[in-house]
């Protein structure tokens, strides 16, 4: 039988969460203070994290070489690899893509520098609700989730409305602009391959405004003194269309595959792509939005991950999305119902990462 330890009645969780938020120091500040035990607002129930060690012997997510993506013969092979990876894993790693290594290294270094600035320099950017589209914070769902996780982040809405450039901290401004330009281009290339994999015109995702929103995230996972009691980022699926991920070499990302957690080993110079809930629905289940999480960092070296979320663009309230009509057949009827913008936004933003995924909610 499981022993459930009741929290002492004196524990006012909300108060402790508020104090952490108001201190504006993030988990980086806690880590730097030299604590050897983590505050209880970060402690996850053991039964939820007892499977933190990867149990899979799988060699990991598929690796896809994008060299010669524009030669007709190669393209057919690459499209099939992308389709198969998006269908089974929901995750793949691309190499020999169009983005120079220097761009990857520079954005990673700039985000590291931002988070490693003295507290006084960072605190003025700390916000709970992103008012300007440029945010520095810890745990975007701090007040919605039941337990906090061991990461800080910056985020910037890059498109369709461009950010006010002088609101982006100087320390990563130029690197972000350069990275975003490159990531947008790669997003278009991968979007074409994904469309072709569904038997659609290569421009279909773009023309349906499915790649129009781009949100940048600069995640920072500092050393955690008790990595077995918490996580870096809770398990979740990404709500949007697709994501480009650039983690540094510190391990931590895990992907669920065939009911087991698999460690992702990022290749130097590679980029990880994953499918979000929106694309699973639009593709009528052909592509999968797969659960992933990040372990709390047990290494002294911080873990940094650059994230670019692609999502549907400006969305007319009267417009509803659902499986593309081209993908609904007598053999494969619609797997999901149509949904409105309000439903989509509410599902994600009101409940945080703990919420039920859109895919579950809309399943027919
Ligand atoms: O830090 C990572 O590598 C993953 C981040 C992630 O999954 C997310 O922000 O949606
Ligand atoms: Fe994610």
From TrEMBL:
Entry superkingdom: Eukaryota
Domain Fe2OG dioxygenase: 206-312
Keywords assigned by UniProt, alphabetized: Iron, Metal-binding, Oxidoreductase, Vitamin C
PROSITE patterns given in the database record: FE2OG_OXY
InterPro entries reported for this sequence: DIOX_N (IPR026992), IPNS-like_FE2OG_OXY (IPR044861), IPNS-like_sf (IPR027443), Oxoglu/Fe-dep_dioxygenase_dom (IPR005123)
Gene Ontology MF term list: 2-oxoglutarate-dependent dioxygenase activity; L-ascorbic acid binding; metal ion binding
Pfam families: 2OG-FeII_Oxy, DIOX_N
Metal-binding recorded as keyword: yes
Keyword Metal-binding in annotation: yes
GO biological process, alphabetically ordered: coumarin biosynthetic process; response to molecule of fungal origin
Family to which this protein belongs: Belongs to the iron/ascorbate-dependent oxidoreductase family.
Protein name: Fe2OG dioxygenase domain-containing protein
Species of the source: Fraxinus pennsylvanica
């Amino acid at each position: 039988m499981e022993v459930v330890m009741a929290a002492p009645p004196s524990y006012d969780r909300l108060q402790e969460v508020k104090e952490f938020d108001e201190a504006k120091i993030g988990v980086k500040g806690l880590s730097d203070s030299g604590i050897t035990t983590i505050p209880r607002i970060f402690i996850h129930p053991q039964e939820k994290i007892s499977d933190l060690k990867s149990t899979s012997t799988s060699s990991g997510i598929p690796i896809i070489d994008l060299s010669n993506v524009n030669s007709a013969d190669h393209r057919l092979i690459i499209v099939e690899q992308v389709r198969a990876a998006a269908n089974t894993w929901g995750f793949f790693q691309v190499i020999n893509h169009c983005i120079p290594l220097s761009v990857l290294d520079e954005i990673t270094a700039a985000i590291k520098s931002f988070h490693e600035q003295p507290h006084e320099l960072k605190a003025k950017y700390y916000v709970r609700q992103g008012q300007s589209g440029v945010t520095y914070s810890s745990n975007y769902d701090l007040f919605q989730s039941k337990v906090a996780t061991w990461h800080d982040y910056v985020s910037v809405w890059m498109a369709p409305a461009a950010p006010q450039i002088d609101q982006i901290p100087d320390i990563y401004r130029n690197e972000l602009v350069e990275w975003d330009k490159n990531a947008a281009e790669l997003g278009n290339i991968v979007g074409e391959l994904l469309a072709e994999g569904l038997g659609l015109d290569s421009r279909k995702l773009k023309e349906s405004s499915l790649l129009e929103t781009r949100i940048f995230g600069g995640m920072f996972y500092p050393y955690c003194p008790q990595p077995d009691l918490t996580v870096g980022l809770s398990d979740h699926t990404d709500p949007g269309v697709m994501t480009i991920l650039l983690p540094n070499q510190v391990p931590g990302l895990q992907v669920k595959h065939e009911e087991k957690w698999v460690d992702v080993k990022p290749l130097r110079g590679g980029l990880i792509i994953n499918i979000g809930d929106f694309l699973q629905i639009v593709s009528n289940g052909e592509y999968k939005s797969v659960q992933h999480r990040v372990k709390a960092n047990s290494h002294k070296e911080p873990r940094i991950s650059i994230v670019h979320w692609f999502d549907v663009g400006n969305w007319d309230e009267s417009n509803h999305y659902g499986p593309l009509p081209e993908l609904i057949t007598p053999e494969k009827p619609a797997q999901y119902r149509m949904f409105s913008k309000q439903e989509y936004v509410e599902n994600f933003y009101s409940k945080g990462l703990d919420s039920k995924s859109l895919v579950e909610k809309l399943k027919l």
